[in-house]
Amino acid sequence: MKKVTTRLAGALLASTIIAGAASAETIRWARASDALTLDPHSQNQGVTHNFAHHIYETLVDRDVEGNLQPRLAVEWELKEDDPTVWVFKLREGVTFHDGAAFTAEDVVFSLDRARSEASNMRQLHVEVAEVRAVDDLTVEVQMVGPAPLYPNNLTNTFIMDKDWSEANDVVEVQDYAAGEDNYAVRNTNGTGPYILQSREVDVRSVLTLNEDHWAEDTPAVTEIVYLPIADNATRIAALLSGEVDLVQDVPVQDIDRLQNTQGIKIETGPENRVIYFGYRFGDEPLASSNVTDANPFNDPRVREAMELAVDRDAIAQVVMRGQAIPTGVANPPFVAGWTEELDAYPAVDLERARELMAEAGYENGFTVTLDTPNNRYVNDEAISQAVVGMLGRIGINVTLASRPVAQHSPLVTSNTTDFYLLGWGVPTFDSAYVFNDLVHTKEGSFGAYNGGLYSNPELDAKIQSLGTETDMEVRDATVAEIWQVVKEDRVLLPIHNQVLAYAMRDGLTLPVHPENQPLLTDLTLGE
Amino acid sequence: MLAFIIRRLAQSVLVMLFVALIAFIVFRYVGDPIASMVGVETRLEDQEIMRDRLGLNDPVIWQFLRFVGNALQGEFGISYRLQQPVTELILSRLPATLELAFASATIALVFGLTLGVFTALKPKSFLTGLIMAVSLIGVSLPTFLIGIGLIYIFAVELGWFPSFGRGQTVDLGWWRTGLLTESGLRSLVLPAITLSLFQLTLIMRLVRAEMLEVLRTEYIRFARARGLSQRAIHFGHALKNTLVPVLTITGLQLGSVIAFAIVTETVFQWPGVGSLFIVSVQVVDVPVMAAYLMFIALVFVLINLIVDILYYVVDPRLRVDAGSGK
């Protein structure tokens, strides 16, 4: 009965759209977890940003192809005679939800708030020296040195209203240790396309259309009911029973079945995230191996043998049920620096792999422990299990140690693992982000996730030059050189790019967003 | 009497302190809260700053003392995950759990008693055999399977009940209830049944065993010999004497229903303290975990305290013991 009513309602809606009248469309949107906070500068986390994008806006934004788009800024460029200053021209006629006008002062306030010490967004703005308003609609950001890619860092830095923040005592980002509550954690005043109506953490949040939004096109969705449902089976059941319209975080094992279910539609697309294995470099013997006088991973022949033994296609087909894109480079395809040649990977060749192992002096193999998270990436533990079997075929006996990401991640950052799985997303869409954290020698703010302590001073110098190089041609060439070395040296063992799937009822269309941050203004209706 | 109560109270406080200490030590090993708070992309030096601000670099014993000191004032700090006061979070989630717990306890008690009495009075009937067999399946299936099964049959296939959540709720100011709306009541059905199944079976088997035993006793035979009606014998004498142990068990089990509603709440996305706890464990939200464990310990300590005092009031032998100075 209920399903019939929904269908009738759908048909009625469809007819009103054809008639061209504005229709009221409510979308019930379920995903695995809730936004952590409504304070836009307090957490640097995808789910939280995704929710915030509906209420707050950023200066620049990224579309589903991964390109930068104007949002609150209409133009941005380096100052003519000074490559250390970025100039942003702001959009005219924008108002906050409470009616206050949006001006350069709000941008200065928000960028300063986002780079304050208590803010989790701080890392993206470390190169900023000063933010100043030139006039009502122009902002200049003074960088400490040339920073050609700074706008890439702004896609999740939201703009708040200065006066509202001062009036509600939220000038500072909430300080955990102080143990106090913060108005901005639960209340919002953005410029975005939707206005927060109600919020029950972990239960339900309701957003309604902002009639005064600056965008010319009115979105099809006029009301969003946001429902976090943690359990995979329950989330899918809610879609099947018609209680929700759109489900994010669809488990891969359900994709096939949902695709064959009437009334349900699945949209898949690549995510900006690569899954790879890392191993320890250096002469120091491995802590978990039976080889106690040398580090087998330090021998390039062993690394090559491992690459030849790992069957990426089998992982993609069997473990990921087709929902992964095998790759030979630890760089997602959206990211500047990716090429098809880099992406290519060798075919499995066990014979050659065994030869290489023998040449390296390990014809009898060796043992090692593989650390893997089990709740962070799609089928992370199952991927590791598959690799254990594949490496066993060339004599590498792997013991699997599986942990929740909260326990796994410290192993990598503290370099107490010999062999590990990790996933890496590139929010700046630029290779330098990968090099800085995964390839550069671990020192200072570099190499934070270089869990295998790879070190190549020549590459380090090149990586550091990327931060200040303003001649894009030179920069691109350097990026290509670095990737060449990283791939030949097998610094990392990339497996695949993760694929995302959104499930929705028939009649809705929502393209997959590479950062898994879909905006429901992009959702379209119609059969 | 007073001395007894004071002694039991002192013991309870010790138990609570012990739970707090254990909780604290265990939480050192569940993982790094920072790792899940910041996402993979946060710089290490920023993580260090956060660790300092949260006091995670202080010695464990110092953190423990600070925790106990704050807990005594009902202050459990700020949730790492949601940045809201933990006490407030738990209190806002408590009504959902309590309503679910009492609904399922009621179902368990009503059906458990009825079925228990029926199977005791008609031990040879075919229906009894069926009930006993089904009840065995009921206890041996894990809760999440029962929950998922109910969702698939009654929510997805038949569409009778919602598959998740609490439906419409009414905020009474101090209590957010789902009992006053139709969708709230409908949402309660599946999780309450899921949560009640184990208790139901337990009570049914207990009632049946006790009742069978009572029916064999002398005074029942005398009552029969005197020609009392079956009805009077079964419900006036036999059932009444069965109820004492059943009520004791039910009281104690209520505590575990509240504590272990975790699985049911997760499967049905029921917004109670159990699902709050599970999410908190996943992201190592130590303040919430610690407060939840303390809360559960408090529930058990209080129930046991009340039961002890009741025994003391009911059973004269305990009083004699205490009086003779043993």
UniProtKB/TrEMBL annotation, chain A:
Superkingdom to which the source organism belongs: Bacteria
Gene3D superfamilies the record matches: Dipeptide-binding Protein, Domain 1, Dipeptide-binding Protein, Domain 3, Periplasmic binding protein-like II
Gene Ontology, cellular component aspect: ATP-binding cassette (ABC) transporter complex; outer membrane-bounded periplasmic space
Biological-process GO terms, alphabetical: peptide transport
Signal peptide location: 1-24
GO molecular function, one term: peptide transmembrane transporter activity
One Pfam family hit: SBP_bac_5
Compartment(s) where it occurs, according to its Swiss-Prot or TrEMBL record: Periplasm
Keywords carried by this UniProt record: Signal, Transport
Chain ranges of the Solute-binding protein family domain: 68-444
Annotated family: Belongs to the bacterial solute-binding protein 5 family.
Name recorded for this polypeptide: ABC transporter substrate-binding protein
Species, as recorded: Paracoccus aestuarii
UniProtKB/TrEMBL annotation, chain B:
Any GO BP: transmembrane transport
GO cellular component: plasma membrane
Keywords: Cell membrane, Membrane, Transmembrane, Transmembrane helix, Transport
The protein's name in its UniProt record: ABC transporter permease
CDD domains: TM_PBP2 (cd06261)
Signal peptide (residue range): none
Annotated membrane topology: Multi-pass membrane protein
Domain of life assignment: Bacteria
Main location: membrane
Domain ABC transmembrane type-1 residue range list: 94-311
Subcellular compartments: Cell membrane
TM regions (residue ranges): 12-30, 100-121, 133-155, 188-207, 243-270, 290-314
Family: Belongs to the binding-protein-dependent transport system permease family.
InterPro entries: BPD_transp_1_N, MetI-like, MetI-like_sf
